[in-house]
Amino acid sequence: MSDTDTTRTSSSGLRTPIVAVLGHVDHGKTSLLDKIRGSAVIEGEAGAITQHIGATAVPLETVSRVAGRLVDPDDFDLPGLLFIDTPGHHSFTTLRSRGGALADIAILVVDVTDGFQPQTIEAINILQDSSTPFVVAANKIDTVPGWNPRENSPVQGTYDAQSDRARSRLDERLYELIGELSDHGFSADLYWRVQDFQKNVGVVPVSAETGEGVPDLLTVLMGLSQRYMKDAMQIDVSGPGAGTVLEVKDEKGFGATVDVVLYDGTIREDETIVVGGTHEPIVTDVRALLQPRPLAEIRAESRFDRVDEVGAAAGLKIAAPDLEEAMAGAPVRVVRNREIDDVIAEVEAELAEVEVSTEEEG
Ligand code: GDP
Fold first, then answer.
1. Which atom of ligand 1 is nearest to the CA of 87?
2. How far apart, in whole angstroms, are the C-alpha atoms of residue 314 and residue 8?
3. Is residue 35 annotated as involved in ligand binding?
4. Whose alpha carbon is nearest atom 24 of ligand 1?
5. ipTM of the assembly?
6. For the chain, which has fewer Cβ within 10 Å, the N-terminal or C-terminal residue?
7. Are 109 and 146 in contact (CB under 8 A)?
8. Which residues are noted in the entry as GTP-binding (predicted)?
9. Can you give the pTM of this predicted structure?
10. Residue 350 backbone phi and psi in degrees, to 5
């Protein structure tokens, strides 16, 4: 076994909330994910952050180190946050779990100067339709003229340290953004003024470039999940695994494999699984469960560690025979102690929904 064991759920049976990042092109989705990964690596010792397939796990201890005094780990019992690495609302709409969105919560990234753009509006409609709680990352605050950056600082400190002029320029943009959110039916405010995150959307000023506000963003995400998602995060840790295919890939030495985000239960080597396929559900046995070697950036001969069990929520690669016709966005189910026909029927029913939603997207 490797240190990917950290992907397991806590003993309490609460799984990691899955976080998606949405927003208009060039507003900073990728940079923000990179920054979150980067600050977690800098703040923590090696292995503090686990690289997954298609997802990045940030454990609670790392969140609290990055967030400093903003997060007291004793206040939380969720194990951390799992960020889906493919940003963009296309991936958000095609990645579903049991008919709902795969992500439990979302970050809507908006360039604070550019404001609402067509894809911002698309994203906000999707979040509304799927009733996904979200926070707004008002990104690129460092581009406000006269801005004096303070690397990785919580936003309050950096805000207070600005000249009156820079601060009022930022305020102007933030209030414009809050107005735009209101035009789209969301009552929003700066996150530190929000009392009830179920009624109001929190706006977090951030810079994916300097890291300012990133501690706040992580704190708000933890708080949102802990307060409002805790019931949904309650899973049977030893139940049969359920997940969603992100990608189908050929992998040297393994043939066709699927990259999966597991959102429920566990999956073990040798277990029988049912995977949604382009023609019909595929019934196969897991040959190997793979996770990237820690910080394995280079395409070395073996970039993966084999693990014998993975628990939700986590990203992983599954190698098994007959996966050539597996389909991105399709469900994956571990059969375990159930009737195989029931599981096939479940997968078929879900596939029908995936197809409907893809058509709708047109
Ligand atoms: P995406 O299309 O939403 O994933 O956007 P990217 O993350 O690729 O960012 C688009 C561009 O904006 C890149 O050149 C980034 O370096 C830049 N960028 C992103 N965030 C920030 C920020 O907070 N400050 C500054 N100055 N530039 C940023």
1. 4
2. 8
3. no
4. 140
5. 0.99
6. C
7. no
8. 23-30, 85-89, 139-142
9. 0.89
10. -70, -35
